[in-house]
Specification:
This is VCBS repeat-containing protein. The chain is α+β, with helices and mostly antiparallel strands. The protein is about 20% helix and about 30% strand.
Length: about 325
């Protein structure tokens, strides 16, 4: 998913901003970006309580403090079914536990955000509960937990997943045989962030996830190649702009565009274009811009070779 735009701003979640389920584009800054440091809190930590219902299920989440100023004191969740409380505690979230305590808050943080959702995700008629937590940090992180009813109805199971700074967007896509539209979590492959360039100049190929009660989280990207093609077109447009202007490091976007192409079976064509960019000196690292043209070509070629190995190792080539 494209994370870069031409706007001269770095977009990060801010207190009171409903950022949930909209894959925020992080822009390449064309000038100096000033980050305001939070002022020490003098009032009591803010407390937000939200209740969402769906069918027989009611979920209430309470978020205390802010992940921005260090006052975040975790999220407490209560789930009841037909009036009987079946869960009362803190959602799991690997990025939310620090020194044995939860420091996360509800993502979005305002009264109108959808950090708490009750929805049937697997089509069995029983609603699940989705809780999105924010860990804090300049560009991080979304922790999502899905609660589903145990087979014996005695409580709820938890399925946590870290979407990190990519976040996700909940969309609908056609399901398998005999299914109608199913909910899909549209995100990006977080392994690409900060891999080849700075965070602001990084991008990630699209990645689609489906949650089912029996199998949990499943990567279903290869089942929706039209979404991959759409992301590849966006990545290519941005790559063309960056390489044409020669003012930004192109490696992050080039890697994401290449990954989409490999997924679509275009390895040969992708390598041809990447090698051409490398020979023009467009795929050298940002620290080598003052080096000779030959050095830039060599560094770019090495990048392409390493990227090719990595994409094959990560399973981006279609299976025979």
């Amino acid at each position: 998913m494209v994370r870069l735009t031409e706007d001269a701003a770095v977009v990060v979640p801010c207190q009171g901003a409903p950022v949930l389920r909209s894959r925020t584009n992080i822009a390449i800054a064309t000038g100096l970006v000033a980050l305001a440091l939070p002022v020490a809190a003098t009032a009591a930590p803010k407390r937000i309580t939200r209740t969402v219902t769906g069918g027989p299920v009611a979920a209430t989440a309470t978020s205390v403090g802010s992940s921005f100023d260090g006052t975040g004191a975790g999220v407490q969740l209560k789930i009841s079914r037909n009036g009987t409380t079946l869960f009362d505690g803190a959602p799991k979230g690997a990025g939310c536990i620090y020194e044995g305590k939860s420091s996360c808050t509800l993502l979005g943080w305002d009264e109108g955000s959808d950090a708490l959702v009750v929805r049937d995700l697997d089509g069995n008629g029983e609603p699940e509960v989705i809780v999105d937590q924010y860990t804090g940090g300049a560009h991080c992180c979304v922790d999502t937990t899905i609660f589903n009813l145990k087979p014996d109805g005695s409580g709820y199971l938890q399925s946590p997943k870290e979407f990190r700074d990519e976040g996700y967007r909940l969309i609908s896509r056609p399901g398998g045989t005999g299914e109608g539209a199913v909910p899909i979590f549209e995100s990006g492959d977080i392994r690409f962030i900060d891999l080849y360039t700075s965070h602001a100049a990084s991008s990630a190929p699209t990645q689609l996830w489906r949650w089912t009660g029996q199998a949990g989280w499943i990567d279903v990207t290869t089942s929706y190649l039209d979404d991959v093609r759409a992301d590849q077109r966006q990545q290519r447009k941005l790559l063309d702009r960056i390489t044409r202007r020669s003012i930004y490091e192109a490696r992050g976007v080039a890697a994401a565009w290449a990954a989409d192409g490999y997924r679509l079976g275009q390895r040969t064509a992708v390598l041809r274009i990447l090698r051409r960019l490398a020979d023009r000196g467009r795929l050298a690292s940002g620290f080598s811009q003052r080096r000779s043209a030959a050095a830039k070509r060599s560094q770019g070629r090495a990048f392409v070779q390493g990227l090719d190995r990595r994409l094959k190792r990560w399973g981006y080539l279609p299976r025979p």
